[in-house]
């Protein structure tokens, strides 16, 4: 009984440790290889499940078999017209041959370094065949197809299947961007000046047209006014003429009163002739 009490827990512990060193699980997102002293000893494990290995001697290395992003650092590349572009590209790929992957690049970080180096080199060669403006505007798809084909043939030797390569960004260098912005500002300033000049010209044309219309309207109004005044004067002269013909003495008397009214508005003294109509009128009742 004392033997069981002492050695049974020890036996259970050893069994758990040995089982942990013997059995391992590969899930559906993983692939694995088993190595002994650094060398693979069996084909890569592609299917999920429970597997066994020699405890304490064999080592299990697992890899993610899902798509992986291989993101290259932005690089300054020279185009065929000797102009530079900052190209930021990436690739999508996955491990299809874990054994070859382990033999060549060992780790995911090693794979990223090797794959991005190949992609950057092929991208540099392809960009060198195109004009700067074509890379930015029209040839991006063609460039990516060519780089994908060229890079695939090299990266597949690492046990990696590259499914797509894309350019995230194709920008001008900072010094070029500064010159472009200066040209844009100058162009906007020139356009603004043209718009202002056109506005001033249009304003002057509108004002000249308005002044012309105002002058015409004023001239017509003066002409109409003079016509009306002339007609009024003619009518007044006609009335006066008729009045004069009917009673010349009364007309003379009325005109005399108007003259005297204008004279006598202030404290004035006048001397009347005995022959004047006003004198006769004032002395008629005496």
Quick summary of this structure?
This protein has helices spanning about 1-20, 100-105, 110-125, 130-135, 140-155, 175-245, 250-265, 275-280, and strands at about 25, 30-35, 40, 50, 60-65, 70, 75-80, 85-95, 160-170. It is of the alpha+beta class. The model has no long low-confidence stretch (mean pLDDT about 80).
Q: DSSP strand (E) fraction? A: 15-25%
Instruction: Give a quick account of the main beta sheet: strands, pairing sense, barrel closure.
Output: 4 strands, antiparallel
> Judging by the overall fold, what is the CATH architecture of the domain at 68-172?
2-Layer Sandwich
Mean pLDDT: 82
Determine Rg (CA atoms, Å).
56 Å
- How much helix is in the residues? 55-70%
CATH superfamily of the domain at 68-172: Band 7 domain
Word description of this protein:
The chain is an alpha+beta fold. Among the domains are: 47 residues, no CATH class; 105 residues, Tetrahydropterin Synthase, Chain A, CATH 3.30.479. Helices cover 58% and strands 20% of the residues. It is built from eight helices and nine strands. The strands form three sheets. Strands 6, 7, 8 and 9 form a four-stranded antiparallel beta sheet that branches. A three-stranded antiparallel beta sheet has the order 3-2-5. A two-stranded antiparallel sheet has the order 1-4. Strand 2 and strand 3 form a beta hairpin.
């Amino acid at each position: 009984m004392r033997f069981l009490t002492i050695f049974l827990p020890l036996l259970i512990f050893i069994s758990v440790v040995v089982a942990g060193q013997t059995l391992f699980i590969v899930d559906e997102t993983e692939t694995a290889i088993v190595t002994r002293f650094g060398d693979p000893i069996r084909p890569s494990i592609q299917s999920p499940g429970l597997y066994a290995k020699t405890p304490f001697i064999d080592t299990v290395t697992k890899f993610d078999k899902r798509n992986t992003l291989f993101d290259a650092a932005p690089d300054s590349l020279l185009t065929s017209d000797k102009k530079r572009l900052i190209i930021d590209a990436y690739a999508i790929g996955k491990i299809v041959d874990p054994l070859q992957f382990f033999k060549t690049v060992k780790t995911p970080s090693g794979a990223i370094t090797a794959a991005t180096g190949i992609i950057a080199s092929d991208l540099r060669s392809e960009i060198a065949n195109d004009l700067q403006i074509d890379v930015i505007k029209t040839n991006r798809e063609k460039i990516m197809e060519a780089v994908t084909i060229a890079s695939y043939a090299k990266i597949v030797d690492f046990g990696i299947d590259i499914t797509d390569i894309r350019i995230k960004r194709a920008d001008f260098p900072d010094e070029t961007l500064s010159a472009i912005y200066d040209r844009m500002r100058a162009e906007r300033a020139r356009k603004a000046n043209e718009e202002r000049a056109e506005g001033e010209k249009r304003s002057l044309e509108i004002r000249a047209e308005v002044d012309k219309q105002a002058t015409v309207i004023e001239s017509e109004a003066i002409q109409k006014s003079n016509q009306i005044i002339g007609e009024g004067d003619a009518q007044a002269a006609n009335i006066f003429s008729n009045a004069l013909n009917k009673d010349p003495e009364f007309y003379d008397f009325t005109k005399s009163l108007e003259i005297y009214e204008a004279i006598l508005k202030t404290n004035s003294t006048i001397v009347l002739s005995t022959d004047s109509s006003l004198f006769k009128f004032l002395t008629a009742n005496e």
